[in-house]
């Protein structure tokens, strides 16, 4: 048993099961469901045995660390998942597709996600390759 | 930043957690996203961004070196769209 399993004792239930019912109804409409922070927190909750509240806080903490690093222009590489790269774009002339009027697109930084070969294989239902 | 550095940063903020538990937590999050995408589901993380998959039809490609025709099977590719808040942070508060 890990140190954190002991903390897990009390929990506020209900929220997630209600959500799954709503999602179940959406699935009947043919559309895939949308996974959110709640679902990520649920899998953290199941894997380590923290309270639901702390699991949710940790999900947010991970996202904050990622955002902070990226906002600093840092590249984030997550092995077997993918990497996030911040690219600087110089100013260019764009065009409003509806009116055809030329408008300058200011210089900016954009975030690009490059999926790893493991992730690409997984979404295609193939076994993950050992390289990432 | 690589995954082990991310794990270390989270662990530094949570002295009550073991490093290996933080590692499990980070992996659980990434696995959940991966599993969702492999089901064809969308993962929406407000403020950060959304992961989804896009369908690519089969096509005839060319080997750029030899010019030989090669058929490329249809496939699904993971896609990430940056969230509004993240976009603003990258551009000092201005939405790009």
Q: Describe it for me?
A:
The complex is a heterodimer of chains A (132) and B (96). Chain A is an alpha+beta fold. Helices cover 40% and strands 22% of the residues of chain A. A three-stranded antiparallel beta sheet of chain A has the order 2-3-6. In chain A, helix 2 crosses helix 3 (52-71). The model of chain A is unreliable at 1-14 (pLDDT under 50). Chain B has two domains: 1-41, no CATH class; 44-88, IHF-like DNA-binding proteins (HU Protein, Chain A, Irregular). With 96 residues, chain B is α+β, with helices and mostly antiparallel strands. The longest helix of chain B has 20 residues, at 19-38. In chain B, helix 1 (3-13) packs across helix 2 (19-38). In chain B, strand 3 and strand 4 (69-72) form a beta hairpin. Chain B is extended, with a radius of gyration of 19 Å. The two termini of chain B are 24 Å apart. Chain B is built from three helices and five strands, in the order ααβββββα. Chain B has a three-stranded antiparallel beta sheet with strand order 1-2-5. Helices cover 40% and strands 29% of the residues of chain B. The model of chain B has no long low-confidence stretch (mean pLDDT 94). Chains A and B meet through strand 1, helix 2, helix 3, strand 2 and strand 3 of A and helix 1, helix 2, strand 1, strand 2 and strand 5 of B. Strand 1 (34-35) of chain A pairs parallel with strand 1 (42-45) of chain B, so a sheet runs across the interface.
């Amino acid at each position: 048993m890990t140190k954190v399993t002991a903390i897990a004792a009390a929990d506020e239930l209900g929220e997630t099961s209600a959500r799954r019912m709503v999602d179940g109804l959406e699935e009947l409409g043919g559309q895939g469901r949308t996974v959110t922070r709640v679902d990520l927190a649920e899998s953290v909750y199941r894997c380590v045995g923290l309270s639901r509240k702390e699991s949710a806080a940790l999900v947010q903490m991970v996202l904050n660390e990622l955002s902070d690093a990226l906002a600093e222009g840092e590249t984030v590489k997550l092995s077997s998942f993918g990497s996030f790269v911040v690219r600087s774009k110089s100013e260019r002339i764009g065009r409003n597709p509806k009116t055809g009027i030329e408008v300058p697109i200011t210089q900016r930084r954009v975030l690009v996600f490059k999926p790893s070969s493991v992730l690409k294989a997984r979404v295609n239902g193939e076994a993950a390759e050992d390289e990432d | 930043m690589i995954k082990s550095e991310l794990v270390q940063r989270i662990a530094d903020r949570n002295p009550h957690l073991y490093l290996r538990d933080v590692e499990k937590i980070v992996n659980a999050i990434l696995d959940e996203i991966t599993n969702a995408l492999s089901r064809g589901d969308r993962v929406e993380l407000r403020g950060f961004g959304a992961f989804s998959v896009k369908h690519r039809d089969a096509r005839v490609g060319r080997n750029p070196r030899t010019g030989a025709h090669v058929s490329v099977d249809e496939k699904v590719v993971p896609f990430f769209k940056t969230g509004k808040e993240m976009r603003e942070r990258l551009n000092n508060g201005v939405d790009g």
